[in-house]
Specification:
Blueprint (H helix, E strand, L loop, with lengths): L9 E8 L3 E9 L5 E10 L3 E2 L2 E2 L2 H19 L5 E6 L5 E10 L7 H11 L7 E13 L2 E4 L9 E12 H13 L3 E7 H9 L2 H6 L1 E6 L4 E7 L2 E8 L3 H11 L4 H11 L12 E4 L8 E4 H26 L9 E4 L8 H9 L3 E3 L6 E2 L1 H4 L5 H11 L21 H14 L2
Parallel strand pairs: 1-6, 3-19, 6-11, 12-17, 17-18
Antiparallel strand pairs: 1-2, 2-3, 4-5, 7-10, 8-9, 8-10, 12-13, 13-14, 15-16
Length: about 425
């Protein structure tokens, strides 16, 4: 089997700025959009809380450290990145627009006008990050993917808008700029993760993608191949670690260690008599604790998280449409027996989502914790994503433009205010 040619390649870099970790992945992408991982950098995150930048200097230092590691492994000088965004400020809306077709057939101008009509929002404190087209309707005929060239008099568009705080996004861009990086695009992190771990059948059947990070649990729901619901809950792996520290009267660093080394999401999976050595605090003697105590703390917090997720799924109205069940990714997805616990709470099939079919340094990224960074590579390499963004243009040129152009204009306008 002949290996794919990457002679005429371009480099795409994904930057996952998380609450607990910063991850940078660099990939060579060929003209067919296929990519090969050539570098990975990862470091502990500082200066962020629940997906939002709280200390720019600390965040910049963490980003630069991860970038330097990726540059060392890849031999590439990194200048441009696709950066992820998350946080409880994220909101998803389903909107519809309708226009009269100007001629006998539908043109790009008609698409531009109907998408702009669907993008009308009443959220003065937020800006649109993504406009994801679900379908078009031509003279009452739904399910149309590409109406250009079709005959019709009435054109409707159904889109999913993902909105976020402009200041939160601007702070991410500022951190990247201070780390000598240019942001090519801002991408919602669970959207990026879904590109790395979901297959097309799951998206068509209907599936819940849950990305459990350190500070937040981010969720998108797919139906008929498109995102129909987005939400972010301000709970994640950090809350589990904090509960362990409080419940077992230990430090957060020790709580994190025993969570990673001995954590189990279900008490009934722990054998009777199993114990854990717990390091003493401030010179005190080490302690021996029952492993079931650790499991009780972990199970209680994860049950709370999945209860909230189940409530969100039910309130969305799309729960019955999720025939493919739930896919969990993110760093917390690696918790032992998490699938069993999730299935018990959400009452649907659950699997763990890891990036797969990766070429290059695949052994370094085939883990749920790298789903967002790998998904950002997918986003940058995929020119066929069903996403449209409208810019007002007095010359009426460039009717459909990339979201990156729109976002760069948005960020520039934000900083010009000060």
């Amino acid at each position: 089997m002949q290996e794919e040619s990457y002679d005429d390649k371009r480099v795409i870099v994904g930057l996952d700025i998380g609450t607990t970790k910063i991850c940078v992945i660099a990939a060579d992408v060929n003209e067919d959009g296929e990519f090969r991982i050539v570098g990975v950098g990862k470091t502990n995150s500082e200066g962020l809380n629940r997906g939002v930048v709280t200390n720019i200097r600390s965040a910049v230092k963490s980003i630069r450290k991860a970038v330097d590691e990726c540059e060392l492994k890849s031999g590439i000088e990194i200048e441009n990145v696709f950066a992820g965004i998350a946080g409880h400020h994220i909101v998803g809306l389903n909107k519809e627009g309708v226009v009269a077709v100007t001629g006998n057939t539908i043109t790009e101008s008609d698409i531009q006008r109907v998408v702009e009509a669907a993008r009308a929002t009443n959220s003065p404190d937020k800006e649109i990050i993504h406009t994801l087209t679900q379908e078009y309707i031509v003279d009452g005929q739904d399910g149309v993917i590409d109406p250009i060239g079709m005959a019709g008099k009435r054109l409707e568009a159904r889109v999913h808008l993902i909105l976020g705080s402009v200041s939160s996004a601007a702070n991410i861009v500022q951190c990247c700029n201070d780390a000598n990086l240019n942001v090519q695009n801002i991408v919602l992190e669970p959207f990026a993760s879904s590109l790395a771990v979901l297959d097309e059948q799951e998206k068509e059947l209907g599936v819940v993608l849950l990305d459990i990070g350190g500070g937040t649990s981010d969720m998108v729901i797919y139906k008929n191949g498109s995102i129909v619901h987005t939400s972010v809950l301000p709970l994640g792996g950090n809350q589990v670690t904090n509960d362990i520290a409080i419940g077992l009267r230990t430090t957060k660093s020790e709580a994190l260690r025993i969570k990673h080394d001995y954590g189990v999401a279900l008490v009934n999976k722990v054998k009777e008599g199993e114990v854990i050595n717990l390091k003493g605090i401030a010179g005190r003697d080490d302690r021996v604790i029952d492993k079931r105590l650790l499991a009780e703390v972990i199970e209680a917090r994860f049950r709370e998280i999945f209860d909230l997720i189940q409530n969100e799924i039910n309130s969305s109205g799309f729960g019955p449409n999720c025939a493919a069940g739930m896919v969990i990714t993110g760093g917390s997805a690696m918790m032992t027996n998490l699938v069993d616990l999730a299935e018990d709470v959400v009452k649907m099939p659950v699997r763990i989502g890891s990036p797969n079919n990766i070429k290059g340094l695949s052994d370094l990224v085939e883990s749920p914790e790298f789903a967002t960074a790998v998904g950002l590579i997918h986003y940058g390499a995929n020119i066929d994503l069903k996403e449209t963004t409208v810019l007002k243009n007095t010359n009426n040129e460039g009717l459909l433009v990339s979201i990156s152009q729109n976002f760069k204009s948005l960020i520039k306008s934000f900083f010009n205010l000060f």
